[in-house]
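Try it yourself: sequence plus DGJ, in.
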Amino acid sequence: MSIIFHERSREFHLFNDSVSYIIKILPNDQLGQLYFGKRIHDREDFGHLLEFANRPMTAILQDYGFSLEHVRQEYPAYGTTDFRLPALEILQEDGSRLTNFAYESHRIFGGKPGLSGLPATYVQEDEEADTLEVTLRDKLLDMRLVLLYTIFNKEGAIARSARFENHGRKPVQITRAMSLSLDLPDCDYQWIQFSGAWSRERQVKTRRLEQGIQAVSSQRGHSSHNHNPFIVLKRPEADEFSGEVMGFSLVYSGNFLAQAEVDTYNVTRVMLGINPFAFSWKLEQGETFQTPEAVMAYSSAGLNAMSQTFHRLYRSRLARGVWRDKARPVLLNNWEATYFDFDEDKLVEIARAAKEDGVELFVLDDGWFGSRSSDSSGLGDWYANRDRLPGGIKGLSEKIEALGMKFGLWVELEMVNPDSDLYRQHPDWAIQTPGRMPSQGRNQLVLDFARNEVVDHIYDRIEEILAESKVSYIKWDMNRSITECYSQAFPADRQGEIFHRYILGVYSLYERLIERFPQILFESCASGGARFDAGMLYYAPQCWTSDDSDAVERIKIQYGTSFGYPVVSMGAHVSAVPNHQLCRNTPLETRGNVACFGAFGYELDLKKLSDEERRIVRQQIAFVKEYRQVLQFGTFYRLQSPFEHNIAAWMAVSEDKRTAVAGYYKILNDVNCEFRRLRLSGLDPDLKYDVEGMDNWFYGDELMSAGLVTTDASAGQAVPGQFCTDFWSKLYVLKARGE
Ligand code: DGJ
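Structure, out:
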């Protein structure tokens, strides 16, 4: 058992080979935090790690003679003697917001319970993890707070969540309920966030923690392009390969807050959970409220090791279903090939060419339904447009399958155009505030997924199409943020619940569709990567990473995304040049060399390419098919950051370390430059590796310590067609010799 309770000292120690997490029941029966970090020996009493000081000006809890202001806590409340921002806040009928949740009982058990209606990591065998459930009780309110901690036996990761139960007779309003709160004893950290905007998601931003509050959040109803519900704290000297690092990831797709508050004594309080802004949840007697899950990972071996923990965990114990462990089909999506300008014949011809080159899945994007010939109408009317598709989705999907390919379909189920039959029939089904002008985004409104009847209607419509057609893949899009958030189906004192209820509605629709169509591969999408979060990965094992398909921009976007999410989860396509977002021309090889570190595909009309380009495409597809197991499921290492260098590099290594592929990307060409080497990672030091295209072989230790020589053969002189382009890249394929 990797969770021990020491009765005398009243301490819980959760540990495995790599991490320890220690909690103490404080003198006032609330929970204190003693340690999170590298695994340390267990002992009966860690009480010395709980330091008190009688400082002037300190507010003392009368009965206990100590102050919460100076105590590191597990799930702190505001208003008694702690003046920092709290993990919870409950507004009561008399106007008070004070609470006192004190230890009542606990349970330790093998395995990990699911969270009803919410995405969460899971185990397949009870032996994979142990769970501590601590129940705290506020006597005055007759409320319970149940804190869940699961430690994965083979990962340096702990999953946490909190559940509120109201047993009292009076209703309360929960106005703050974080998933995770962690008080760390010092603040000698750099904070890393993954921020950006549409088409430049998850850029790596690093800064020193300072006294005060640093935070990222979303108030948009989805996790957003702007900030990601994932943050990292690292020691200043830590890098990709060494040093102490902690990652905090929220398994949630709605409004979130990720925050670190450093107090005047340099204690760092990390918080992660539903954004308390614009949130409240009314809890009547007998009702419970479950927070989403947060996962925290610790690494003493740098950022790559932390990311690899998230990659393994999210790939195999968050993602689910038949596609979880399967290499992903090479797809071709028609969006950038046709936009809204297509009919069945055109699509079939595009698919036929794709089939010739080895594409396995043809995806029909936006524009196939209702009156949808532009983005100004038709959303919500989930009937195939018979002018464009005379045989409907059924007919088209059969034609695609007859070509020997699988068929995939785009949907945007959460939205409605005002110019649609659905909106004309049910205007109250859109989220909007009575008496206020509804704002539009991309000419559309958001459907009120807080209402079961709306979700039921959409389920019925899409179920009918999927049931009669041969659909193997769904791209589930979502193209605007929520404004004027209000549901006409809920009373005034429940309007603070709508953002969260909306996302619960999205999850429930996903769950029903996954259950009904377990063979379908789902890819989530939100104007590119506006909902690339761990919550979505529970339903859709891959996500369209960004609408920006330019290879150079994608290096940064995929690099940033890889900190918290597995390579296989990143939808990555080769698109046409000049690129549709930036008008940049990049070599076709580089577009392929970037996209192959992801769920690979094309987003163009292959018929429009030259014979030579088609030859390259065929080569790329054959390469991906041969190496996708390593590329998508191998251990991924970031080697050189595009945020810091002109040359970026990363690599993937097979589980047995016998095969590896390194991607090497030179953004701008340079002349008469230095000799170059790339230090590889994750290889077996004792194995001899052949590097494709090189005559020599190399020991793994040499490649990792001395490095692979990557010097341009031209040594900086322009040799047309060789090394003299900007945006040049190369894949190094390594294979071990012998058995
Ligand atoms: C936004 C997506 O990110 C694109 O890939 C495409 O599907 C469009 N929506 C279609 O409207």
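One thing you can check immediately is this: Residues 685 and 700 are 4 Å apart (CA to CA).
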